[in-house]
Amino acid sequence: MLNQYLDIHPEVQKALESGKPVVALESTIISHGMPYPNNIETAKKVEEIVRENGAIPATIGIIKGKLKVGLTEEELNFMGKSKDILKASRRDLPFIVAKGLNGATTVASTMIISALANIKVFVTGGIGGVHRGAQDTFDISADLQELAHTNVAVVCAGAKSILDIGLTLEYLETHGVPVISYGSEEFPAFYTRKSGFKADYRIDSEIELAKAINAKWDLGLNGGVVIGNPIPEEYQMDYDIINNSIEEALEESKKLGISGKETTPFLLSKIKEITKGKSLESNIKLVYNNAVLGAKLAVELTKIK
């Protein structure tokens, strides 16, 4: 019955059937995370980087109610240009599918669809988490619950800097989600390599990473893994500048009454404006960096199996 909802690109299907490495990519970054044409250029480059590092890319989105696993160039362009794309998390999937609508997948929904297609590695920019002030608003991303339950390894540049990273890590610990920092002791904070918080584990090679993830799932320990991959030093932003920009953006969002799923796109756009575009450049470079690690991890996981 699943096939009536899932539409897997032939190249991706062939790779999955033959045991080749596949890397899932989200589409919210295309439709809601970056302006046109940067969004489409970045999406295409990320797919290219995944291929260069030995894996098959599968960008995930929803078009006319179909869960697309691997977008054609035409579909990718549509996701990047159309204003008729809903931001789709777990709660939204059944309604977007039932109504035959178009949706861009968040971390949570990309994980769900990846698991349905049996893809084990997913590359994104940054995960969602506990928002600043969540003790009053209860604004906590559905990404964290998905990480607690769904068997997909998520390669990211840490949690988005706009979040309360300390509380995000506490939440993940409560739900038994391992948090790894690749090549560093400190968990990265999206635009910067430092967050002020240590990761659970530091791992320095894709082989070691693949072994740990494989052991987790072999032991029946369901749920995802967060792999924080710090942005390359030459592209990171100044820690104080980015935090001051975030504070300014947060103040404006409060004044405008912005909340829920509109918060993150607004804040990222505002920070780009405040930093005169530097944050967008950092965002693009960290996604490229994550694509390299995600592809190499997918390759190592297929070797184990």
Instruction: List low-confidence stretches.
Output: none
Listing every helix as H and every strand as E from the N terminus to the C terminus, the arrangement reads EHEHHEEHEHEHEHHEHEEHEHHH
Count the domains: 1
> Which secondary-structure class do the elements indicate?
alpha/beta
How helical, in percent, are the residues?
40-55%
Describe the global form.
globular
Summarize the biggest pleated sheet.
11 strands, mixed
CATH fold call: Indigoidine synthase fold
Question: How would you sum up this structure, described in words?
Answer:
The mean pLDDT is 92. With 305 residues, the protein is α/β, with parallel strands linked by helices. Helix 6 runs parallel beside helix 8. Strands 1, 2, 3, 4, 5, 6, 7, 8, 9, 10 and 11 form an 11-stranded mixed beta sheet that branches. It has one domain (2-304): Indigoidine synthase fold (3-Layer(aba) Sandwich). It contains 13 helices and 11 strands. Strand 3 (56-63) and strand 4 form a beta hairpin. It has helices at residues 10-17, 28-33, 38-52, 73-81, 93-99, 107-117, 134-137, 142-149, 165-174, 206-218, 239-256, 263-274, 278-304, and strands at residues 6-8, 22-25, 56-63, 66-69, 86-88, 103-105, 121-123, 153-156, 179-182, 201-203, 225-228. The two termini are 27 Å apart.
